[in-house]
Design brief:
The structure holds two protein chains of two kinds. By secondary structure, chain A is α+β, with helices and mostly antiparallel strands. Chain A is built from three helices and seven strands, in the order αβαββββββα. In chain A, strand 6 and strand 7 form a beta hairpin. Chain B has 21 helices and 23 strands. Classes of the chains: A alpha+beta, B alpha+beta.
């Protein structure tokens, strides 16, 4: 019995430590481009797509390239692994997850925040009268 | 409205039923019991009436109700219109209440036969009371003019153009306008899965309240042992339905939403997985309690956690706390819902764990008498691994809350967190689900254990070797494949032996076979998929991933959507995949649905990204000033004017009138441009005596001086410069998902295993019924 309790406790402690370390490591911090450049690790940056700068999908590399500015108005070229994200054109803001490297932000994922349907939308009710 | 009144009746009746049943528990009285049953029956009937009324106003498009306006529209086909019943918060709480009420009615008789009616029903009625209270807070029958009083309520004369209106107070001349059309259902949800998935998932969520109610009932009755015999069949039922709901959701995401996979570790998915894991853990510890009498406290705690975790999930996904970190972010529900959901957790956790704390000393202690090599110990370890898995998932999912308290900054964990933490536990679970089947209760004979391990281990080594040869070089994956194959073969042998003896007992082995197959399917399809983004020029074959693909063209599909046909060829076999893209309404953006070729050993998954239409700028561009004739290539062209209109079909329509003199003929031509929410379309105009075409490039009216207004046109003369017309290019992401069928096959087998277990445990529960009616 005693032996089982000891083994059990060791396993539990090991798992808790393992879980906590994984949690800390994978908690992707929200930050801006300046800090992302300094950190060099995977972060997420919130900002907006710069519509008037070039944005294109490179079929050869399978990358979607565009420019975005963060909340401090720093403009950076973003290289996204994959095609143009869903709802990219209508997004009010975007969040890019990735790393800053050699003057560009290499994103593994870009989330788009759309102007969501909210319940007290008076202009929407007027449209349907 | 009558609906709002019925909601209040349902609330009062279920509250009354709670009180009466509780009184009856304190002191039995036949009259009170009868009254309690009547009260509960009234609650059930009222809730059915609420659901029927809500469905009725949705099916008949009564847009004077805010809910109907918010979630439905007249263009939805019948089944989807029906599904708007649970598309919003109010409706989904109605569905939850309906399920709770009906399950309670079924379990009333079941519990009565087991002598559990008063205790079980008092707690179940309380759950129902709180759900109906949600409907008072978020009334599904709220009128739209109460939501928008400033915009919709008017006084005085009703103008002729008012559309739908209703008098609120004729004497005072107060009237309200209401919409002719609704905002419609989110296009992502407009799919037959919307009809199937949510009802199953909600039934699963509701079923999680059953083990909680029986655990509390057991403590109220001071029955710490035999309540699990009453509860087990329903716990297994809940695990089966919730599990089915989760997989259906995954399949929906995979097949239509185009997330590329069936599981994205999204908070909404996670929060249905967590109660399921705990529920499955409790099935295992209950099994152990049946055999050895141990795990009494664990079973109370786990059974109660099933429901508390469902409430916590609901809180996470419905209260808005996750903010921007979830793709499922629901509309901001308002503070009331937030506090109500929090209250729900606090109340039921307090009742359950408070009672547990009070009674814990009374609970019998059974000394543990088993060795390391016993089935009890394997069950204990397996259940612990399941609980740890759910703990890791719940912590990851709660990350926005944890980081907002701890760092005052909301952030979510990356999905790699879940893979890192869950994978080792999944390996442990797979190994134990095989090993546990070979162990005996209390103690096993080491010699015979080793003998029975030989063949499954050998086969699992062979499987891992094959996987390694096929390209699985990641060591963690090889270990996982080994563990899952070991579980698969062990359970196949054990299951075969059991089926030969007594097939009714084979539920566990069969469910484990299914889980092992799913594990193998997860590794193959999620870790070893191959993906490529391709640009397919119309009519030109592109070879990728071993397939020859040719984009054939697009065609209109149902309800304003477009299907993009791609021919896929391999080894002489031809398939057509038709992924779909269309523009959602208002600001919903582009919606993309993938298409799949389901082959025996793999899926070929084609997800559309975009269609690039070559620029219509071919031809010679000329800018014309209004009213000034200009000579171009032997033609005289004059820009007369333009007119602008909007049409529901084409959006904004710009028509430009030009007078053209060509070869002695003077004529008026009108090239046109449509701009339908950013989808621009050009309709060129041709000259009648030649095949020269004129297209609009841009129109720039000048407010200050009309004579400065210009239009830029493009003149396309096919005879002048024979230009190669460029083809459309469809950009897709093609993925090969090997052995994904194992995931679905495994799911069916698990469901089969659960069904056999339910039948067995129901039979056992029936045998020890007490006659109290």
């Amino acid at each position: 019995m005693k032996l089982k309790v000891i083994i059990g406790s060791i396993i539990i402690v090991a798992f808790v430590v393992f879980g906590a370390v994984s949690f800390m490591n994978s908690n992707v911090e929200y930050t801006d481009f300046a800090k992302a450049e300094k950190l060099g690790k995977k972060v997420q940056v919130k900002g907006a797509w710069l519509r008037d700068k070039e944005s294109q999908f490179d079929a050869k590399t399978g990358q979607f390239i565009f420019y975005m500015k963060d909340d401090n108005n720093k403009q950076v070229r973003v290289v996204l692994e994959g095609g143009k994200p869903n709802n990219f054109e209508i997004a009010t803001s975007i969040v890019a997850k990735g790393r800053y490297k050699d003057g560009a932000f290499y994103a593994s994922e870009v989330l788009t925040k759309c102007p969501s349907k909210y319940e007290g939308d008076a202009s929407a009710v007027k449209k349907t009268l | 409205m009558i609906g709002s009144i019925i909601v209040k009746i349902a609330f009062s009746a279920s509250l009354l039923s709670t009180i009466l049943y509780f009184l009856n528990h304190r002191r039995f009285s036949k009259r009170i019991l009868q009254l309690a049953r009547i009260a509960y029956g009234t609650a059930v009937i009222s809730i059915i009436a609420i659901a029927v009324s809500l469905i009725y106003i949705l099916m008949t498009h009564q847009f004077q109700f805010s809910y109907v306006w918010n979630y439905s529209s007249t263009d939805l086909p019948g089944p989807l219109l029906f599904s708007t019943f649970y598309a919003g918060q109010e409706g989904s709480f109605t569905l939850w209440s309906l399920y709770t009420a009906v399950i309670g009615a079924v379990l009333l008789r079941y519990s009565a036969r087991k002598g559990y009616e008063s205790e079980f029903m008092s707690i179940f009625s309380l759950m129902l009371t709180f759900l109906v209270l949600m409907l008072i807070v978020k009334n599904p029958f709220a009128y739209i003019w109460d939501v928008f009083p400033k915009d919709l309520i008017h006084t005085g004369q009703v103008p002729a153009v008012a559309g739908n209106f209703v008098w609120l107070d004729r004497a005072k001349g107060i009237w309200a306008q209401y919409p002719l059309e609704g905002r419609g259902l989110n296009p992502l949800l407009q799919n037959y899965w919307m009809v199937i998935h949510p009802p199953v998932l909600f039934l699963g969520f509701t079923s999680m309240s059953i083990p909680f109610a029986y655990a509390v009932a057991g403590m109220l009755k001071r029955d710490y042992v035999s309540w699990i015999r009453v509860s087990t069949p329903w716990t297994v039922f809940g695990a089966m339905v919730l599990g089915t709901g989760i997989v259906l959701g995954g399949y929906w995401a995979y097949e239509t939403l185009g997330w590329g996979g069936y599981w994205g570790w999204d908070p909404v998915e996670n929060s249905s997985l967590v109660p399921w894991l705990v529920c499955v853990a409790s099935i295992h510890t209950m099994l152990s309690q049946r055999r050895s009498g141990s795990f009494i406290k664990t079973n109370f705690v786990l059974s109660m956690l099933c429901y508390i975790l469902v409430l916590y999930s609901t809180f996470l996904t419905r209260s808005g706390v996750l903010g921007e970190t979830s793709v499922h972010s629901f509309a901001e529900p308002g503070m009331w819902v937030y506090w109500m959901l929090l209250l729900l957790i606090v109340v039921f956790a307090a009742i359950g764990f408070g009672l547990f704390f009070m009674r814990r000393k009374e609970m019998p202690k059974v000394p543990v008498e088993h060795s390391f090599f016993s089935r009890e110990f394997a069950l204990f370890l397996g259940a612990s691994a399941l609980v740890f898995t759910s703990l890791f998932v719940v912590i990851g999912t709660s990350s926005p809350i944890i980081t907002s308290i701890w760092k005052n900054k909301i952030s979510a964990v990356d999905t790699t967190y879940y893979v890192t933490t869950v994978l080792p536990l999944a390996i442990v679970i797979a190994l134990l689900s095989g090993l546990g089947q070979l162990l005996w209760w209390r103690n096993s004979d080491t010699g015979s254990l080793l003998r029975s391990l030989r063949v499954p281990i050998a086969l699992a080594v062979v499987m891992s070797g094959i996987a390694y040869a096929a390209g699985a070089h990641n060591s963690a994956m090889v270990v996982f494949i080994f563990a899952a194959s070991f579980s698969l073969f062990t359970n196949l042998f054990v299951g075969y032996r059991i089926v030969k003896g007594n097939p009714k007992m084979a539920g566990g082995a069969i469910a484990h076979i299914g889980i092992a197959l799913m594990f193998l399917g997860f590794v193959a399809s999620a870790k070893y998929d191959t993906k490529e983004t391709l640009s397919l020029e119309q009519g030109k074959a592109v070879t990728a991933l071993g397939y020859k693909m040719t984009y054939l063209g697009y065609r209109p599909a149902e309800r304003g959507r477009f299907a993009f046909d791609v021919e896929v060829e391999k080894g002489g076999k031809q398939f057509i995949v038709s992924p779909v893209m269309f523009n959602g309404r208002d600001n919903e953006g582009m919606i993309r649905n993938p298409d799949i070729i389901n082959l025996l050993t793999k899926d070929f998954y084609v997800s559309p990204l975009s269609l690039d239409v070559p620029d219509a700028s071919e031809g010679k561009e000329v800018t014309l000033y209004k009213g000034k004739e200009q000579n171009v290539d032997g033609m005289k062209i004059e820009y007369i004017n333009y007119n602008f209109s909007t049409s529901p079909e084409f959006g904004n329509v710009v028509k430009v009138n030009l007078d053209v003199v060509h070869g002695g003929n003077k004529e008026r031509i009108t090239p046109t441009m449509h701009n339908n929410r950013g989808q621009v379309q050009f309709l060129p105009a041709s000259l009648s005596h030649s095949n020269i075409q004129i297209n609009i490039k841009s129109v720039r009216p000048s407010q200050a001086n009309d004579n400065n207004s210009t239009v830029t046109i493009a003149i396309v003369d096919p005879n002048a410069a024979p230009q190669q017309k460029k083809n459309d290019v469809l950009v897709v992401e093609a993925t090969i998902k090997p052995y994904i069928n194992l995931v679905w096959l495994g799911t069916f087998i698990v469901i089969g295993g659960f069904l056999i277990t339910i039948a067995r445990r129901r039979g056992e529960a029936r045998r020890d019924e007490v006659v109290s009616e």
